[in-house]
Amino acid sequence: MNYEEIIKRLREPFGGREIEWKIQVTSQDKQRGMAVAYMDARAVQKRLDETVGPFNWKNVYSLWHDNSQICGISIFYDERKEWVTKFDGAENSDFEPIKGGLSDSFKRAASVWGIGRYLYEMEGVWVEIEARGKSFVIKQNEYGRLEREYNAMLNRIFGARQAQQGNPSGQVPAANTRQTQAAPAANSRQTQATNTAANTGQFAASPAYDYQVRTIRPSGKSSQFLEMVDRRGGVVKAYIRATDQSIKAGTCLNNVQIEKKNGNYGEYNLISAYQLAA
Prior knowledge:
By secondary structure, the chain is α+β, with helices and mostly antiparallel strands. It folds into two domains: 3-164, 2-Layer Sandwich (Enolase-like, domain 1), CATH 3.30.390; 206-276, CATH 2.40.50. It is built from five helices and twelve strands. It has a five-stranded mixed β-barrel with strand order 8-9-10-12-11. Strand 6 and strand 7 form a beta hairpin. The longest helix has 22 residues, at 143-164.
């Protein structure tokens, strides 16, 4: 299998039963919640095993700023006879913090390889929920509808991509049909309410900007990590050495200057200057 085939296989969509749904926001009466699709770590491991073989990938973790984990996933590139590693990180979670941080950083590193990256383009789905302890869970009878919604969103996302690439049929790549029941969510996967726009990817249209912030999260004590979308739909991830309270999910930026930097964990983007769009 050559490089192009490996990347294509890694980026294939997961089957509907291989993903997790988490509640991000709830209605005021706490009867409904917005469910958002996430990768399951075991599904990522299975994808790597099936694509490159269990002996041709590995991962490594490092502590970052005392409260975050950096994960690197390496794949052996046989044509060059070398390991290629891609990194990403996540903060420790509130419950079982180390375990949660390791799992989240692993899945984010997988996204850098393209695994499950399409999930960022998916919209949230409002479902009926019920209280469980201090959080809320999706009612069992909603999972069939969620799987149908997931498949419909796959058709929209991959159909649009095929059309842009000159394939008017918009045929969607087959999702992994070797579906297995996703493992129960680990206790570390605590539901956290976040800004609705950040998770649905729905922002107000505005032509007068260079980038629009899709997600933003702290990175250490004095920096932030941004995921931005340009006007053509391209995604750019970058750090900023500041804690600017005016930047939120949906904020539009102009005159953005991005510098390529090299650190202990490889190459990364650093925003050195920007202006808030009017």
